Give the backbone structure.
Amino acid sequence: MVDVPRVPEQRRPASGNGPEERTEGHPPEVRTPRFSVLGPVRAWHGPDQLNTGSPQQRALLAALLLRDGRTATASELIDALWGDEPPSQALAAVRTYASRLRKVLPPGVLVSESGGYAIQAGDGALDLAEAEDLWTAAEKARGVGDLCRARSLVNEALDLWDGEPLANVPGPYADTQRTRLDEWRLQLVETRLDMDLEQGCHAEAVSELTALTAAHPLRERLRELLMLALYRSGRQAEALAVYADTRRLLADELGVDPRPGLKELQQRILQADPGLAEPSAPAQEPTSAAVRPAQLPATVPDFTGRGSFVDELSDILSAAEGRVMAVSALAGIGGVGKTTLAVHVAHAARTHFPDGQLYVDLQGAGARAAEPETVLGAFLRALGTADSAIPDSLEERAALYRSVLDGRRVLVLLDNARDAAQVRPLLPGMEGCAALVTSRVRMVDLAGAHLVDLDVMSPEEALLLFTRIVGEERVTSERKAALDVVAACGFLPLAIRIAASRLASRRTWTVSTLAAKLADERRRLDELQAGDLAVKATFELGYGQLEPAQARAFRLLGLADGPDLSLAAAAAVLDLPLEETEDLLESLVDTSLVESAAPGRYRYHDLVRLYARACAERDEQPPTERDAAMSRLLDFYLASAARVYAIERPGDRTVDHLETTGHAGQDFTDDTRALDWLHSEAACILACVQQSLGARTLRRAVDLLLASKDLAESGASSLRYEAATCAARDAAAALGDTHAEGRARVTLTQVLNNAGRFEKAEPEARRAAELGRVSGDPWTSGNAPNEQGIIANCMHQHAAGEAFLVTAIEAFRADGNRPGEASALCNRSRSLDSMGRTSAAIDLVKQGMAIYDELGLTFRLANARYALGIALTHAKRHAEALDQLDQALVVFAENRQRLWEGTTHYRIAHVHLSERHHALAARHAEQALTTGYIGGDWMRANVLTLLGRALDSLGQVDRARACWHEALVLHTNAGSTEMDEVRELLHPIAAA
C-alpha cells in the first residue's frame, strides 16, 4: 500500500483574497503580503522583500504563520522560541519582536488579541498553504485517473520548496515543524515517483531514486520504488541486489527485517511476475485508463462481395476469447483486395476486442521491409509504454509486447507481410488476442495459422463493385459495356476500382467509352493472371490517362528508394519549380497513383513504385534521363546537407572539400530548422547514398555521408548510417577509387569509434590514412590520423596516439582547417593527460577552445569543454572541471547529441566520485545509462564500473557487484583491457 502524503496540520482562514488580485479597469486593491516558510522565512509586499529581522524575530514570525491566522498567546510564543529554558526577559523580548514586525508589515497584518498575537494574511499568502492546495488538487486528479495532471501538480508543490524549511530559524517549535515539513516533502517525492512508475518512466526514475536512497538509506519505500524501477528497466540483478543491501543495512542499523511489502516485491522479481512488467496503481486507488489503440485504417464505404470469406474470418475472430490466439493469414496477388478484406473484417470484429486494435503496413513487397523491432517499438508506444521503457533488442521488445498484452483482448492487423519470419515476433501469443495477416505469399510455415487464399472476384461481385463506385444509373443503361470493363480488368478489385474511379471523375465519358479504351489493353490485362504482371497491367490503366508531364513525374519520382519524398526533393528530381511540382504531384494524388503522406510529402505504394520504375525503363527518353534525375536528387541532398553542416560548424573546411553540385539545396533560416530537416530526411538521405554508388555518383554519395555525419552522432539513425557507409566503402574499393574509399573509411571509423568498437575501427583508420597519402586528399589526410589518435588513446596507447595527432594537426594546418586543428589539439591533450603531462594537456585544450571561440563554433566548443573537463579532473581541479562539463552538457542537449550528452554525464559522475560525492556520482552515471546511446558496450561497461564504485561507497554492495558483473561481461566480449580492473573490483567481494 502506498503511503499517502500527510499535509501538515493547519487550518485555513474562512475567507480572504489572493495576495495580488486586481480587477481590469479598476484601481488596484491594497496588496496583501506574501510569506514563505518552505525555505528561509521571508516576507514580501508586492515585489519588495521585507526585512524580517533577527533569527529570533523570524522564529516569532514563523510560529505565527504556521498557526494560519489563529492567535498565539505570549506563553505559547515563549515556549516556541526558547522551550523549557526561556531568558528572564522573554516576555519583553516577544513584545519587542512583535513591535518590530508590525512596523515592517503592512497595517492590519500583525494584530494583538487577548494578550497574544496573530497574522491576518489573505488566502494563499503562505507558500505552505499553496502547496497544500496543489496537493489537494493532485489527489483529485489522481482519483479520476488523470495521472499526468496529478504528477504536474505534485511537481508544482515540490517546486515551492527553496532549500531547508524554516532555514536558520532557532527554537524547539521550528525544529519540530522543520522535521515535519521535511517528512512531508519526502512523501510528496515518493508519491510523484510512484506516479512516474505508473506512467512507465522507470528508466528516468532510477537516477533520482539512486540518489534518494543514498540520502535516506533506511527509507524502505524508496528502496521498493528503486527495485521496481530497475526491474522494469531490464536490470533484474541490480533490483535484487538492492533488496540484499537493504536487508543487510536494516539488520546492522536497526536489527529488523525488511517490511513485508519489500519481501513480497523481491519474491515477485525472482519469479518474473508478469504483473510487474506493466505499471500498476496502488490498491484501492483509481488508476488512469489503459491506452486503447484504434489504429485500423478506414474501411471503404463501397466494400463489395467476399461474403464467404467475411463469414469465415469473422467466425474465427469472434471465437478468439478463451483460445490461446487466433491467427488468420490472407494470401493472394497484389491488388486482389487482401487489405480491403482484412480491414473490413477487423472493423466488424472490433466489439470482440475491447482493448484495442493495432495496425501496421509491413512493406513486405518492397526492397526494404519493415524491421520487426521497429514495428514492436511503435506497437509498445501505442499501448502506452514510454519510449524510455522500450528495450533495444528484438527479443526483449517481443517479450515486453507479450507482457503488455497479457490480460487484454487486442486485434493485430499485420498488413503486407514479407514472410513468416517477419510476422512471428509480432504475434500477440496471448489468450483472447487475435492477428490478421496479409501477404503475397502463402504462409504455410506460420504454425497454427488459418490460411485463406484470396482469388479474384466473381463476375457478379466485380460488376456490383463497379456499379457502387460509378453509380447505378450510368451502369444500368450500359450493362454489357460494364461487364466488358470488369472482364478487361480480370475481375481484380484494385483494377476495377481504378477503372471505375476514372469513369466516375469524368462525367462526359460513357461506360462504353471506357470499355473501348480498355479494349486495346486486352493482351496486357489477359496477362493479369500471371503473377506480378497482373498488377502492372492494372496500373497501366491509370498511367495511360496521364498527361505527358504527369507521366514523366510519375516515372521519375518512382526511381527514388526512400520511403517518401519531400516537395523540394521531388522538384529537384523533376528539375521544375516548386509550384509546378506541387501541381503535378497533387494531380497524381487525385489519380491514386501517389499518396500524400503528410503536408508537403509524397509516397508510392510499393507495387505502384515497381510499376513506375518499369514505365521509366520502357518509356523514359532519352534513357540517360533516369540517371540524370537520380543525380539531381543526390545533388539536392548533398547541397542541403552541406548547408546544415556549415550552419552547425561555421569555418569547417569540410564543406570546401565536398564535390560540387548542380543544385543549391534547401535553404534554412536557423540551425534548429536545419537539424530538423536533416533528421526528418535521414531515411531518404541514406537510401539515396546506397542508390548512388555507381562510378559517376560515388564520390558525391560518400560526401553526402560526410555532410550528414550528425545522423551517426545522434544515435537515432546510427545503424542505418553505418550500413550505408559500409556499402560506400565496398563500392569504392571495387571501383578502385582511392579518394572515395579513403573518405568512406574515415567516416566508417568515426561510426565505429562512437560505438566503442576500436578493434574494428583501427584497421579502417589505418587503411584510410594510406589511401589519403595515395590520393592526396587533404580531408582524409587530416581526419584519418585524427581518428587513429582517438583509437590509440582509447586503447591506452597514448604515445602512439600523440604521434598520430601531431600528424593530424600538421595536416589540418596545411589545409587551413582550423576547426580540424582545434579538434586534433583537444584529442592530443587526452594523450598528454594520460601520460601525466596534465599541465601541457590543459594548455592544448585551451588552444583548441580559443580557435572554436574565435570561429563561433558553439557545438564544437562544447567538445573542447568536455576535453578540458577531463584534464581538469585529472589535475584535481574539480570545481573548474564541473563548470566546463556542465556548460558542455547544455550544448549537447540543445543540439540533440545523445552520444555526447551521455558521455558527459559519465565524466561529471567521475568528478563527483573523485570528490567523494557518491550519491551525485551514482545519479549522473544513471543518467548516462538512461540516454541509451553512450558509445556502445565499451562505454556502457565503463559507466557501470563507475556506478558500481559509487554504489559500493554508499553501502549498496550487492547492487555494485551486479553492475560490475555486467561490466565484466561487456568488457570480456569486447576484449577490452578494462576487464582486469573490473575483476579486481569483484575479487575482494567474491572472497568475502
